[in-house]
C-alpha cells in the first residue's frame, strides 16, 4: 500500500522544543517517550510533538534525539491500552531494555529499524549511545476503529518486538513525511494528519496484526454523489480544517472505507487533492487579481507565503513568482 505521497528529510541541528499540537496544546510537556520509555526534556537535544485527536482519545507523534552518549536510565510511565511504535532514524548502538522488570535482548539497531511495544506492560531502558527516533503512540481505541472500518472484528494485537530488528520502509516513510509537520505544526492540515495516522495504523494491522484482525479485501470507489459531496466540503475550506471523520460521515462511510474509496476514485488521498486545489486557486488569483503573493497564499488556504512557495514549487516545478511572470509574457 502506498501510504503517503509526501516525503521529507530530517533537518539536523534543530533545537530542543515542543510544539503545540493540532489541538493547540501550547504548554510543552515535561516528559516524552524516548525509544520505548520516558525521558525528561532536559536530557535530550530535540523534542517535538503533535497530538492528534482520534475519537475520544489521542494519537501522539514525536521526534526526539540526543547527539551525545550517556542518556542513562529512562523514567517509569503509566500503563496504557495502546502501542508505542518506534522508528530509529539513526543507529542505536548501545542500550538495555526491561519489560515488566525483566531484561530483554537488546541488539544494536540500525537506522530504519522499527519496533512496537505494548504499553499495557511497563518499560524501562538504559540508553548508553546517541539516538534519534520518531515515535507514535496509538491508543487501542484508534486501532479498533481502523480495524472495524476495514471489516475486521477488532484490532487484536500488534507484534514486532525489538529483538527482531525489523526494518519497514512504509513506517519509516510515514515518519519522515511527518517531520515537517512536527517542525511547522501551523502548516499541517488536520486532514493530512488524519490520513497519516490512519494509513500507518492500517499498514501496522496488515503487517504486524494478529491474523483475525487483518483487513479484509478492499471495497470499491465512491459513488458520484459521494465524490461530489466530499469535494464540495474540501473546497469549502481550503485551509484544511475539515477532517476525515467529517468527510466519511457526510458520505455515510467509515473513515477507512472512505479513504480507500476516495483514492480509488480520484487517484490520490484527500489531503493531496486538497493541496492541488489550493495550487489551482492560487493560479486563478495570480492571473485575475493584483493581490501580493502573501495575500494570495492566505486566500488559497496556505499558512503563509513560505508554505505557499514551498508547496507550489514542489507541485508545479517552478516558484509562484516565476510562474506568474511566464503567464504575463
TrEMBL record:
GO terms for molecular function: DNA-binding transcription factor activity; sequence-specific DNA binding. Residues 1-32 are annotated as: Disordered. This is Transcriptional regulator, AraC family. Residues 228-326 form the HTH araC/xylS-type domain. Keywords: DNA-binding, Transcription, Transcription regulation. SMART domains: HTH_ARAC. It comes from Bradyrhizobium oligotrophicum S58. Signal peptide: none annotated.
Amino acid at each position: 500500500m502506498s501510504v503517503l505521497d509526501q516525503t521529507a528529510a530530517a533537518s539536523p541541528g534543530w533545537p530542543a522544543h515542543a510544539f503545540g499540537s493540532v489541538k493547540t496544546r501550547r504548554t510543552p510537556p515535561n516528559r516524552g517517550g524516548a525509544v520505548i520509555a520516558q525521558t525528561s526534556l532536559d536530557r535530550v537535544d530535540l523534542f517535538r510533538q503533535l497530538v492528534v485527536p482520534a475519537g475520544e482519545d489521542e494519537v501522539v507523534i514525536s521526534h526526539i534525539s540526543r547527539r551525545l552518549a550517556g542518556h542513562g536510565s529512562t523514567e517509569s510511565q503509566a500503563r496504557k491500552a495502546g502501542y508505542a511504535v518506534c522508528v530509529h532514524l539513526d543507529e542505536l548502538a548501545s542500550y538495555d531494555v526491561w519489560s515488566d522488570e525483566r531484561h530483554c535482548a537488546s541488539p544494536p539497531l540500525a537506522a530504519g529499524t522499527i519496533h512496537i511495544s505494548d504499553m499495557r506492560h511497563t518499560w524501562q531502558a538504559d540508553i548508553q549511545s546517541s539516538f534519534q527516533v520518531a515515535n507514535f503512540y496509538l491508543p487501542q481505541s484508534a486501532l479498533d476503529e481502523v480495524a472495524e472500518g476495514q471489516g475486521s472484528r477488532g484490532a487484536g494485537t500488534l507484534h514486532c518486538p525489538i529483538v527482531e530488528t525489523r526494518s519497514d520502509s512504509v513506517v519509516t516513510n510515514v515518519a519522515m513525511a511527518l517531520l515537517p509537520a512536527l517542525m511547522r505544526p501551523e502548516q499541517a492540515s488536520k486532514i493530512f494528519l488524519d490520513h497519516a495516522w490512519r494509513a500507518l495504523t492500517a499498514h501496522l494491522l496488515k503487517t504486524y496484526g494478529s491474523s483475525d484482525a487483518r483487513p479484509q479485501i478492499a471495497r470499491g470507489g465512491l459513488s458520484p454523489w459521494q465524490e461530489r459531496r466530499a469535494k464540495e466540503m474540501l473546497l469549502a475550506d481550503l485551509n484544511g480544517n475539515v477532517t476525515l471523520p467529517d468527510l466519511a460521515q457526510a458520505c455515510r462511510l467509515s473513515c477507512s472505507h472512505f479513504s480507500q474509496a476516495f483514492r480509488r476514485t480520484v487517484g490520490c488521498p484527500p489531503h493531496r487533492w486538497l493541496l492541488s486545489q489550493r495550487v489551482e486557486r492560487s493560479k486563478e488569483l495570480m492571473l485575475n487579481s493584483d493581490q501580493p503573493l502573501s495575500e494570495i497564499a492566505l486566500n488559497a488556504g496556505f499558512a503563509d507565503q513560505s508554505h505557499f512557495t514551498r508547496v507550489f514549487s514542489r507541485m508545479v516545478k517552478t516558484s509562484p513568482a516565476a510562474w506568474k511572470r511566464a503567464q504575463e509574457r
